[in-house]
Design brief:
4 strands, mainly alpha, two-stranded antiparallel sheet, 153 residues, globular, disordered C terminus, disordered N terminus
Length: 153
């Protein structure tokens, strides 16, 4: 599969409901890494990581108001199921709330794009175990695990 095809698959995945992705975690992690590694050098630098998170934000921001609301994020992380009974709807709502809290995106007013993107510095530093300013595929998994919003499981 070409690099552009991998990127197209990855970006389409972000805009699609979570259930649309059936790849196992290792495959998913590779697809996300290839999409983030824009220059194809085998690592993700801070600029690439920032741009990647911006693409993710824009894909989730359904009304294009430069703000992610709990509703927008929740629908992407845990999509509703057709013909769900009340018990299932309650489970979906609970799972959405748990993930929003984990990702620190549960504020009723949502989170502005600038604030969301500013968070990348801390996450990037945490993931960059060898402090070389670049994330290897192994280090990049920290980003994917920390922010399920990149590519929900």
């Amino acid at each position: 599969m070409t690099r552009m095809a991998c990127l197209a698959v990855a970006l389409a995945t972000f805009a699609a409901p979570v259930g649309a992705l059936a790849a196992p975690d290792p495959v998913r992690d590779v697809i996300v890494f290839l999409a983030a590694d824009r220059n194809g050098d085998g690592s993700v630098d801070r600029t690439e990581a920032d741009r990647f998170r911006e693409v993710i934000f824009d894909a989730i921001d359904a009304n294009n108001d430069a703000r992610l609301t709990p509703q927008e994020v929740g629908v992407q992380l845990v999509p509703a199921k057709e013909n769900a009974d009340q018990k299932e709807l309650d489970k979906i709502a609970k799972r959405r709330e748990e993930l929003l809290v984990k990702l620190d995106l549960a504020k009723p007013e949502g989170i502005a794009k600038d604030e969301y993107l500013d968070r990348n510095g801390e996450l990037f530093a945490k993931a960059d175990a060898d402090k070389d300013g670049r994330l290897s595929p192994t280090e990049f998994v920290v980003v994917v695990d920390a922010y399920g919003v990149l590519l929900p499981k």
